[in-house]
Inverse folding.
């Protein structure tokens, strides 16, 4: 009677399946052969902080807009709320700064502070979020 070996795909992340001797002295691999990220990793990545495009980082620097962890968290919350409503591209207002974001890509495209907002028209957006 052979030993029962659990299916590695059904084990929690980080738990290795026990190895069993196979004919010819080969050892069974402790991970599945998919080589892809686990569902938990993908979920954690999608819920992570938004990325900032090069253009957005340049605008933040040029306009002297401070970017704190709290601000990034509020932008992320705004993106999540927009995603919950099915938005694709949105403007997320945090205090006196507007962040134009791609909801699908979880990316900040540009940032505009209150001093520059009078000169700009936001186009190609389908929602606005006050975070």
């Amino acid at each position: 009677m052979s030993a029962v070996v659990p299916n590695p795909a059904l084990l929690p992340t980080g738990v290795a399946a026990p190895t069993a001797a196979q004919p010819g002295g080969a050892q069974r691999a402790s991970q599945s052969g998919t080589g892809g990220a686990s569902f938990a990793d993908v979920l954690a990545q999608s819920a992570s902080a938004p990325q900032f495009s090069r253009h957005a980082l340049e605008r933040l620097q040029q306009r002297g807009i401070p970017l704190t962890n709290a601000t990034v968290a509020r932008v992320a919350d705004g993106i999540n709320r927009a995603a919950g409503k099915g938005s694709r591209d949105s403007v997320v207002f945090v205090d006196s700064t507007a962040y134009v974001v791609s909801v699908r890509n979880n990316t900040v495209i540009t940032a505009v502070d209150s001093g520059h907002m009078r000169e700009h028209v936001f186009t190609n957006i389908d929602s606005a979020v006050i975070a």
Confidence is low (pLDDT under 50) at residues 21-33. The radius of gyration is 23 Å. The helical segments are 39-46, 54-62, 69-84, 114-117. Residues 69-84 form the longest helix (16 residues).
